[in-house]
Amino acid sequence: MTTTGSGSTYDPPADPAHGRARAAASAAAVRGTGPPLRTDRRVVLVTGASSGIGAATARRFAAGGWQLVLSGRDRRRLEETASGTSAVLLPADLAAPDGAKMLAEAALRKTGRVDVLVAGAGIGWAGPFLTMPHTDIDRVLFLDLNATLHLVREVLPSMVAAGSGRVVLVGSVAGSVGVREEAVYSAAKAGLAAFAEALRQELRGTGVGVTLVVPGPVETGFFARRGTPYHRSHPRPTSPGRVAAAVWNAVAQGRDDTYIPTWLTLPARVRALTPRLYRRLLNRFG
Ligand SMILES: NC(=O)c1ccc[n+]([C@@H]2O[C@H](COP(=O)([O-])OP(=O)(O)OC[C@H]3O[C@@H](n4cnc5c(N)ncnc54)[C@H](OP(=O)(O)O)[C@@H]3O)[C@@H](O)[C@H]2O)c1
Hints:
- This protein is α/β, with parallel strands linked by helices.
- It has 11 helices and 7 strands.
- Strand 4, helix 5 and strand 5 form a beta-alpha-beta unit.
- Helix 1 runs parallel beside helix 4 and helix 4 runs parallel beside helix 5.
- The site of NADP nicotinamide-adenine-dinucleotide phosphate has 30 residues, from helix 2 and helix 8.
- InterPro entries: KR_dom (IPR057326), NAD(P)-bd_dom_sf (IPR036291), Sc_DH/Rdtase_CS (IPR020904), SDR_fam (IPR002347).
């Protein structure tokens, strides 16, 4: 079972030959052309903007009058998201070595600042852990966790220097409760949740906030890309527009976290407070 987005192949980050080729391609993609943009509008950099939650979030911020900087690998789908806006498009492969660094540099060079970073790019993998190829373990962890952290590391200094900004991390309920047959994906998203908590503490007093977005299942291409459809009857999938609205509200209100739908805080709380009860309920109801 593989989970490549847009049918691209995966080169393990450790392979230097592949890494160099990939880095060169990625550098070419994110170089960005033309003079720096002059805008008095607030700037949001959205990764994963070519599809699903990222695309819906980008459209929500465009409707709110923000300047968009959009990233994903598929330029054609980025153009669709950007339609009718003056978005800057920076196609980039975040699984490439230095992909996150080059994207952040290109975004800051192009717009001078990033007020909000929405780190939405991500992939899934479903199936028994014992059958998961090592390359897929690396691939999920690298994109969903490492690349996101590197991107935040690159963008954050400019926010701290400006004394304002917000990092929005797209986690998952899988990271809150641990979902069977999504062990590595759950681990990556749990890592993001812990990172959000720790970073928020470090940034206290800087004017920069961190929001963790915790969606349950969402109707996007995510399941088709990972190669396994969503088969549970509960929770029912929600729309990417609903997640985008939650992101928008969380940024407007400076919220630390937002669950979509909100009742999903319940299993996360039960698991955190009484893990034995949580496991017993899980064994009984699945
Ligand atoms: N759908 C759900 O049920 C669900 C639930 C909870 C959390 N989430 C999280 O929400 C986020 C967005 O997922 P989605 O549902 O919107 O899925 P999606 O429709 O498959 O979108 C995934 C996005 O990630 C980008 N991406 C994938 N690999 C990339 C790479 N190597 N470099 C750069 N960009 C890459 C894709 O861009 P290209 O196609 O252009 O490569 C695409 O824009 C993910 O972090 C996911 O884990 C999803």
